[in-house]
Write a structure and sequence with these properties.
By secondary structure, the protein is of the alpha/beta class. It is built from twelve helices and nine strands. The strands form two sheets. The chain has a six-stranded parallel sheet, sandwiched between helices. Strands 7-8-9 form a three-stranded mixed sheet, with helices on one face. Helix 4 links the parallel strand 4 and strand 5. The radius of gyration is 21 Å and the shape is globular. The two termini are 35 Å apart. This is Prephenate/arogenate dehydrogenase family protein. It comes from Caulobacter hibisci. Keywords: Oxidoreductase. InterPro entries: 6-PGluconate_DH-like_C_sf, NAD(P)-bd_dom_sf, PDH_C, PDH_N, Preph/Arog_dehydrog, Prephen_DH.
Protein backbone atom coordinates (compact mmCIF):
# COMPACT_ATOMS: atom_id res chain seq x y z
CA UNK A 1 0.00 0.00 0.00
CA UNK A 2 1.33 3.43 -0.93
CA UNK A 3 1.72 5.94 1.91
CA UNK A 4 -0.36 8.25 -0.28
CA UNK A 5 -3.46 6.15 0.43
CA UNK A 6 -6.63 5.87 -1.58
CA UNK A 7 -7.00 8.88 -3.89
CA UNK A 8 -9.80 7.82 -6.24
CA UNK A 9 -12.43 5.27 -5.11
CA UNK A 10 -13.27 4.46 -8.73
CA UNK A 11 -10.99 4.80 -11.76
CA UNK A 12 -11.99 4.23 -15.36
CA UNK A 13 -9.38 3.80 -18.07
CA UNK A 14 -10.47 4.15 -21.70
CA UNK A 15 -8.08 2.09 -23.79
CA UNK A 16 -6.52 -1.21 -22.67
CA UNK A 17 -3.10 -0.77 -24.27
CA UNK A 18 0.45 -0.38 -22.96
CA UNK A 19 -0.08 2.92 -21.12
CA UNK A 20 -3.66 2.28 -20.01
CA UNK A 21 -2.74 -1.14 -18.69
CA UNK A 22 0.37 0.19 -16.94
CA UNK A 23 -1.65 2.96 -15.28
CA UNK A 24 -4.01 0.33 -13.89
CA UNK A 25 -1.24 -1.97 -12.69
CA UNK A 26 0.78 0.86 -11.09
CA UNK A 27 -2.25 2.44 -9.41
CA UNK A 28 -3.39 -0.93 -8.09
CA UNK A 29 0.10 -1.86 -6.87
CA UNK A 30 0.39 1.39 -4.91
CA UNK A 31 -3.14 1.31 -3.53
CA UNK A 32 -4.23 4.73 -4.79
CA UNK A 33 -7.43 3.60 -6.53
CA UNK A 34 -10.31 1.35 -5.56
CA UNK A 35 -12.66 -0.09 -8.18
CA UNK A 36 -11.22 -0.20 -11.70
CA UNK A 37 -13.16 -0.24 -14.98
CA UNK A 38 -11.81 -0.55 -18.52
CA UNK A 39 -13.59 0.66 -21.63
CA UNK A 40 -12.21 -0.45 -24.99
CA UNK A 41 -13.69 -0.49 -28.48
CA UNK A 42 -11.85 -3.68 -29.38
CA UNK A 43 -13.69 -6.89 -28.55
CA UNK A 44 -10.37 -8.77 -28.60
CA UNK A 45 -8.81 -6.30 -26.15
CA UNK A 46 -11.82 -6.53 -23.85
CA UNK A 47 -11.69 -10.32 -23.88
CA UNK A 48 -7.97 -10.36 -23.12
CA UNK A 49 -8.29 -7.74 -20.36
CA UNK A 50 -10.93 -9.92 -18.71
CA UNK A 51 -8.82 -13.05 -19.15
CA UNK A 52 -5.78 -11.56 -17.38
CA UNK A 53 -7.86 -9.80 -14.70
CA UNK A 54 -6.68 -6.34 -15.64
CA UNK A 55 -9.76 -4.62 -14.18
CA UNK A 56 -12.83 -5.29 -12.05
CA UNK A 57 -15.17 -4.43 -14.93
CA UNK A 58 -14.60 -4.37 -18.69
CA UNK A 59 -17.05 -2.90 -21.18
CA UNK A 60 -17.38 -1.42 -24.63
CA UNK A 61 -19.98 1.10 -23.41
CA UNK A 62 -18.38 4.45 -22.54
CA UNK A 63 -21.40 5.74 -20.64
CA UNK A 64 -21.49 2.64 -18.48
CA UNK A 65 -17.72 2.74 -17.95
CA UNK A 66 -17.47 6.31 -16.64
CA UNK A 67 -20.61 6.28 -14.50
CA UNK A 68 -19.71 7.39 -10.96
CA UNK A 69 -15.97 7.35 -11.77
CA UNK A 70 -13.79 9.68 -9.71
CA UNK A 71 -10.90 9.54 -12.18
CA UNK A 72 -11.22 8.92 -15.92
CA UNK A 73 -8.00 8.33 -17.87
CA UNK A 74 -8.26 8.42 -21.66
CA UNK A 75 -5.50 6.20 -23.04
CA UNK A 76 -6.43 6.06 -26.72
CA UNK A 77 -4.57 7.36 -29.82
CA UNK A 78 -4.18 11.16 -29.79
CA UNK A 79 -6.65 12.00 -32.57
CA UNK A 80 -9.43 10.09 -30.81
CA UNK A 81 -9.01 11.67 -27.35
CA UNK A 82 -11.15 14.72 -28.11
CA UNK A 83 -13.95 12.52 -29.45
CA UNK A 84 -13.79 10.26 -26.40
CA UNK A 85 -13.91 13.29 -24.09
CA UNK A 86 -16.99 14.60 -25.91
CA UNK A 87 -18.65 11.18 -25.76
CA UNK A 88 -18.16 10.73 -22.01
CA UNK A 89 -18.90 14.35 -21.04
CA UNK A 90 -22.66 13.88 -20.47
CA UNK A 91 -22.05 10.83 -18.30
CA UNK A 92 -19.31 12.13 -15.99
CA UNK A 93 -20.30 12.95 -12.45
CA UNK A 94 -19.72 16.51 -11.25
CA UNK A 95 -16.35 16.95 -9.60
CA UNK A 96 -14.70 13.99 -11.31
CA UNK A 97 -11.20 14.35 -12.75
CA UNK A 98 -10.73 13.73 -16.47
CA UNK A 99 -7.21 13.30 -17.84
CA UNK A 100 -5.37 11.65 -20.71
CA UNK A 101 -1.96 10.19 -21.57
CA UNK A 102 -1.50 11.61 -25.08
CA UNK A 103 1.90 12.68 -26.42
CA UNK A 104 0.57 16.02 -27.69
CA UNK A 105 -1.32 18.48 -25.56
CA UNK A 106 -2.47 21.61 -27.45
CA UNK A 107 -5.30 19.92 -29.39
CA UNK A 108 -6.34 17.93 -26.33
CA UNK A 109 -6.37 21.04 -24.13
CA UNK A 110 -8.70 22.65 -26.67
CA UNK A 111 -11.03 19.66 -26.51
CA UNK A 112 -10.93 19.67 -22.70
CA UNK A 113 -12.11 23.30 -22.69
CA UNK A 114 -15.51 22.26 -24.08
CA UNK A 115 -18.40 23.77 -22.06
CA UNK A 116 -19.79 20.28 -21.44
CA UNK A 117 -16.69 19.49 -19.35
CA UNK A 118 -16.98 22.53 -17.09
CA UNK A 119 -18.58 20.41 -14.36
CA UNK A 120 -15.44 18.24 -14.04
CA UNK A 121 -11.73 18.88 -13.58
CA UNK A 122 -10.26 18.30 -17.05
CA UNK A 123 -6.47 18.13 -16.81
CA UNK A 124 -4.40 17.10 -19.86
CA UNK A 125 -1.46 14.86 -19.01
CA UNK A 126 1.41 12.97 -20.58
CA UNK A 127 3.48 10.24 -18.91
CA UNK A 128 6.77 10.17 -20.84
CA UNK A 129 7.26 6.43 -20.76
CA UNK A 130 6.66 3.53 -23.06
CA UNK A 131 8.00 0.60 -25.04
CA UNK A 132 7.45 -0.58 -28.59
CA UNK A 133 4.91 -3.11 -27.32
CA UNK A 134 1.13 -2.63 -27.41
CA UNK A 135 -2.08 -4.30 -26.32
CA UNK A 136 -3.49 -5.47 -22.95
CA UNK A 137 -0.51 -7.75 -22.24
CA UNK A 138 2.07 -4.99 -22.73
CA UNK A 139 1.47 -3.06 -19.50
CA UNK A 140 3.56 -3.37 -16.34
CA UNK A 141 3.42 -1.58 -13.00
CA UNK A 142 7.02 -0.30 -13.09
CA UNK A 143 6.70 1.57 -16.40
CA UNK A 144 6.54 5.02 -14.78
CA UNK A 145 9.23 4.51 -12.13
CA UNK A 146 11.62 7.45 -12.26
CA UNK A 147 10.09 8.79 -15.47
CA UNK A 148 8.43 12.17 -15.97
CA UNK A 149 4.73 12.86 -16.23
CA UNK A 150 3.86 16.31 -17.56
CA UNK A 151 0.52 17.87 -16.65
CA UNK A 152 -0.71 20.87 -18.63
CA UNK A 153 -3.51 22.42 -16.53
CA UNK A 154 -5.94 24.64 -18.42
CA UNK A 155 -4.83 28.25 -17.93
CA UNK A 156 -8.41 29.54 -17.82
CA UNK A 157 -9.28 27.19 -14.92
CA UNK A 158 -7.54 29.11 -12.12
CA UNK A 159 -9.95 28.47 -9.24
CA UNK A 160 -8.86 26.80 -5.99
CA UNK A 161 -10.89 23.65 -6.59
CA UNK A 162 -9.20 23.10 -9.96
CA UNK A 163 -5.76 23.69 -8.42
CA UNK A 164 -6.58 21.11 -5.74
CA UNK A 165 -7.60 18.61 -8.43
CA UNK A 166 -4.30 19.20 -10.24
CA UNK A 167 -2.38 18.63 -7.01
CA UNK A 168 -4.33 15.41 -6.37
CA UNK A 169 -3.63 14.11 -9.89
CA UNK A 170 0.06 14.97 -9.42
CA UNK A 171 0.01 12.92 -6.20
CA UNK A 172 -1.52 10.03 -8.14
CA UNK A 173 1.32 10.06 -10.67
CA UNK A 174 3.97 10.39 -7.98
CA UNK A 175 2.45 7.40 -6.18
CA UNK A 176 2.82 5.47 -9.45
CA UNK A 177 6.55 6.25 -9.38
CA UNK A 178 6.69 9.24 -11.73
CA UNK A 179 8.23 12.66 -11.32
CA UNK A 180 5.70 15.38 -12.13
CA UNK A 181 6.13 18.67 -13.97
CA UNK A 182 3.51 21.32 -14.81
CA UNK A 183 3.84 22.95 -18.22
CA UNK A 184 1.95 25.09 -20.72
CA UNK A 185 0.51 22.89 -23.46
CA UNK A 186 2.15 24.52 -26.51
CA UNK A 187 5.54 24.51 -24.81
CA UNK A 188 5.04 20.82 -24.05
CA UNK A 189 4.42 20.10 -27.72
CA UNK A 190 7.59 21.92 -28.77
CA UNK A 191 9.71 20.10 -26.18
CA UNK A 192 8.29 16.70 -27.13
CA UNK A 193 8.83 17.42 -30.81
CA UNK A 194 12.56 17.63 -30.00
CA UNK A 195 12.98 14.75 -27.55
CA UNK A 196 10.43 12.25 -28.88
CA UNK A 197 8.56 13.02 -32.06
CA UNK A 198 11.48 13.97 -34.33
CA UNK A 199 13.60 10.98 -33.16
CA UNK A 200 10.71 8.66 -34.01
CA UNK A 201 10.32 10.27 -37.42
CA UNK A 202 14.04 9.82 -38.09
CA UNK A 203 13.89 6.18 -36.96
CA UNK A 204 10.89 5.42 -39.17
CA UNK A 205 12.66 7.07 -42.12
CA UNK A 206 16.02 5.32 -41.66
CA UNK A 207 14.46 1.89 -41.27
CA UNK A 208 12.23 2.52 -44.29
CA UNK A 209 15.20 3.70 -46.37
CA UNK A 210 17.21 0.58 -45.47
CA UNK A 211 14.29 -1.61 -46.50
CA UNK A 212 14.09 0.17 -49.85
CA UNK A 213 17.75 -0.17 -50.80
CA UNK A 214 17.98 -2.61 -53.68
CA UNK A 215 21.62 -3.55 -53.02
CA UNK A 216 21.00 -4.56 -49.39
CA UNK A 217 18.95 -7.69 -48.84
CA UNK A 218 16.56 -8.06 -45.94
CA UNK A 219 18.77 -10.78 -44.49
CA UNK A 220 21.79 -8.48 -44.48
CA UNK A 221 19.87 -5.74 -42.68
CA UNK A 222 18.87 -8.21 -39.98
CA UNK A 223 22.26 -9.98 -39.86
CA UNK A 224 24.33 -6.85 -39.27
CA UNK A 225 21.88 -4.92 -37.10
CA UNK A 226 24.00 -5.27 -33.95
CA UNK A 227 25.19 -1.73 -34.74
CA UNK A 228 23.14 1.47 -34.36
CA UNK A 229 20.50 0.37 -36.86
CA UNK A 230 19.08 -2.10 -34.33
CA UNK A 231 18.16 0.72 -31.93
CA UNK A 232 16.36 2.55 -34.72
CA UNK A 233 14.34 -0.59 -35.47
CA UNK A 234 13.18 -0.75 -31.83
CA UNK A 235 11.81 2.79 -32.06
CA UNK A 236 10.36 2.16 -35.52
CA UNK A 237 8.43 -0.83 -34.15
CA UNK A 238 6.18 1.48 -32.11
CA UNK A 239 2.41 1.53 -32.59
CA UNK A 240 1.73 2.91 -36.12
CA UNK A 241 -1.70 4.31 -35.23
CA UNK A 242 -0.40 6.15 -32.19
CA UNK A 243 2.46 7.76 -34.10
CA UNK A 244 0.33 8.60 -37.12
CA UNK A 245 -1.91 10.59 -34.79
CA UNK A 246 1.00 12.28 -33.02
CA UNK A 247 2.50 13.64 -36.24
CA UNK A 248 -0.87 14.91 -37.46
CA UNK A 249 -1.74 16.51 -34.12
CA UNK A 250 1.69 18.10 -33.54
CA UNK A 251 2.60 18.91 -37.13
CA UNK A 252 3.60 22.56 -36.55
CA UNK A 253 6.14 21.81 -33.82
CA UNK A 254 7.46 18.73 -35.63
CA UNK A 255 7.94 20.64 -38.89
CA UNK A 256 9.71 23.43 -37.03
CA UNK A 257 12.13 20.96 -35.43
CA UNK A 258 12.50 19.04 -38.70
CA UNK A 259 13.59 22.26 -40.42
CA UNK A 260 16.21 22.87 -37.74
CA UNK A 261 17.40 19.26 -37.96
CA UNK A 262 17.68 19.49 -41.74
CA UNK A 263 19.92 22.56 -41.40
CA UNK A 264 22.11 20.78 -38.85
CA UNK A 265 22.30 17.68 -41.05
CA UNK A 266 23.42 19.80 -43.99
CA UNK A 267 26.17 21.28 -41.80
CA UNK A 268 27.35 17.77 -40.91
CA UNK A 269 27.23 16.82 -44.59
CA UNK A 270 29.50 19.76 -45.45
CA UNK A 271 31.94 18.83 -42.68
CA UNK A 272 32.15 15.25 -43.97
CA UNK A 273 32.48 16.39 -47.60
CA UNK A 274 35.35 18.74 -46.79
CA UNK A 275 37.04 16.45 -44.28
CA UNK A 276 36.51 18.95 -41.46
CA UNK A 277 37.62 16.64 -38.65
CA UNK A 278 37.64 19.39 -36.02
CA UNK A 279 33.97 20.26 -36.60
CA UNK A 280 32.97 16.60 -36.50
CA UNK A 281 34.94 15.90 -33.32
CA UNK A 282 33.54 18.98 -31.56
CA UNK A 283 29.98 18.03 -32.48
CA UNK A 284 30.38 14.41 -31.39
CA UNK A 285 31.96 15.50 -28.11
CA UNK A 286 29.03 17.79 -27.35
CA UNK A 287 26.45 15.12 -28.13
CA UNK A 288 28.33 12.55 -26.04
CA UNK A 289 28.04 14.92 -23.07
CA UNK A 290 24.26 15.07 -23.56
CA UNK A 291 24.07 11.27 -23.41
CA UNK A 292 26.07 11.26 -20.17
CA UNK A 293 23.74 13.91 -18.75
CA UNK A 294 20.71 11.70 -19.51
CA UNK A 295 22.33 8.78 -17.70
CA UNK A 296 23.30 11.00 -14.74
CA UNK A 297 19.67 12.18 -14.51
CA UNK A 298 18.53 8.57 -14.13
CA UNK A 299 16.63 8.51 -17.42
CA UNK A 300 18.73 5.71 -18.93
CA UNK A 301 21.02 2.88 -17.87
CA UNK A 302 24.80 3.27 -18.11
CA UNK A 303 25.20 -0.51 -18.40
CA UNK A 304 26.92 -1.89 -21.52
CA UNK A 305 24.51 -2.58 -24.37
CA UNK A 306 21.84 -0.54 -22.53
CA UNK A 307 21.43 -3.32 -19.97
CA UNK A 308 20.08 -5.79 -22.57
CA UNK A 309 22.65 -8.39 -21.57
CA UNK A 310 21.60 -8.39 -17.91
CA UNK A 311 21.22 -11.96 -16.65
CA UNK A 312 22.95 -13.56 -19.63
CA UNK A 313 26.24 -14.16 -17.86
Amino acid sequence: MSPTGLLYPKMTVVGAGLIGGSVILAARAHGVVGEITIADASEAHRARALEIGLADHVTGDLAEAVKDADLVVIATPVLSIGDVAAAVAPHLKAGATLTDVGSTKATIAEAFRAPELAKVFAIPGHPIAGTEQSGPDAGFAELFEGRWTILTPLADRDDEAYAAAVAKLASFWRACGAQVELMEEKHHDLVLAVVSHLPHLIAYTIVGSAADLENVTENEVIKYSASGFRDFTRIAASDPTMWRDIFVANKDAVLEMLGRFTEDLQAMSRAIRWGDADTLHAHFTRTRAIRRGIVAAGQESAEPNFGRDRGKH
